[in-house]
Design a protein that fits this description.
The chain is an alpha+beta fold and 274 residues long. Helix content is 21%, strand content 26%.
């Protein structure tokens, strides 16, 4: 069953999680219902892609109002396709919320067990990973393009949580809307990294389609890494929405030849006083 349900033209929510875990807000934005123009039409959430700063701020304000989660409580990252994951405290709130300059540098993942913090990351084909451990009140988010995926940012999140005393079987993961394997053709260079990540795995998450050309299923690869890290299969759900195929809903770096906006993934616990 598709975990992402469109609640509004501007975002999809992870509905089953939000129903199961009261106070949780989690989902991803669409490209619709914002104030950006040109390539960024309409709801571009990325500061770093050349859109007008005030348009991005206006789009973020809109989402903050829709989610009832103040912009000054968001955190955002520079995102360099690496695997640095930061634990976020309440004193970090606001960094990367209304400006790229004060976003967390070289960071592609966040986690926190504090209420009133919205963890946000930007996407236009890469895989958004959402993590929750309701018994420990821990939430997390990671940005997994092919580099982050093969360098196992998913496993690194599970290891960070292990250091917090959270066993892998207590972690639930949602793999979000991203480019599907039919739209994601890669070369031998990328596949060599995939092979190194999956040394002892028989069933591969890619198909050879032409000499030196492969369809790569990044979502399946992330799932395999999570299973290897000890997350039970029943705790993992995967979106079938493709950022490239679903042109009316999503920005896609590949489809739009790099001239495009960014969706925003978000996850946070509402403050119980709200």
């Amino acid at each position: 069953m598709e975990p992402f349900i469109m609640d509004n033209q501007s975002y999809f929510s992870i509905k089953n999680w939000m129903n199961q875990f009261p106070g949780l807000v989690a989902g991803i934005t669409t490209k619709n219902g914002g104030n950006s123009t040109g390539f960024f039409e309409n709801l571009n959430m990325g500061f770093h892609v050349g859109d007008l700063h005030e348009s991005v701020c206006s789009n973020r304000d809109k989402l903050a109002n829709l989610l009832h989660f103040p912009l000054k409580h968001w955190v955002g990252a520079e995102q360099t396709h690496d695997t640095l994951i930061k634990k976020v405290m309440k004193t970090d709130r606001g960094n990367g919320a209304d400006s790229y300059e004060n976003a967390f540098k070289g960071t592609d993942g966040f986690y926190t067990n504090k209420e009133g913090i919205l963890l946000t990351l930007c996407y236009a084909d890469c895989v958004p990973l959402f993590f929750v451990s309701p018994n420990y009140r821990m939430i997390g988010a990671a940005h997994a393009g092919w580099k982050g995926t093969v360098n196992e940012i998913a496993r690194k999140m599970i290891e960070k949580w292990a250091e917090e005393g959270i066993p892998a079987d207590q972690i639930f993961v949602t793999i979000g809307p991203s480019i599907c394997e039919k739209c994601y053709i890669v070369n031998d260079y990328v596949i060599n990294f995939v092979e190194n990540t999956l040394v002892d795995v028989e069933k591969k998450p890619y198909n050879l389609i032409n000499e030196g050309q492969y369809e790569l299923d990044l979502r399946k690869l992330n799932k395999m890494i999570l299973l290897k890290a000890g997350v039970p299969e029943k705790n993992i759900q995967t979106s079938q929405l493709c950022s490239s195929c679903h042109q009316s809903e999503f920005f896609s770096h590949r489809r739009d030849h790099g001239k495009t906006g960014r969706m925003l993934s978000y996850i946070g616990w509402k403050e119980t006083s709200e």
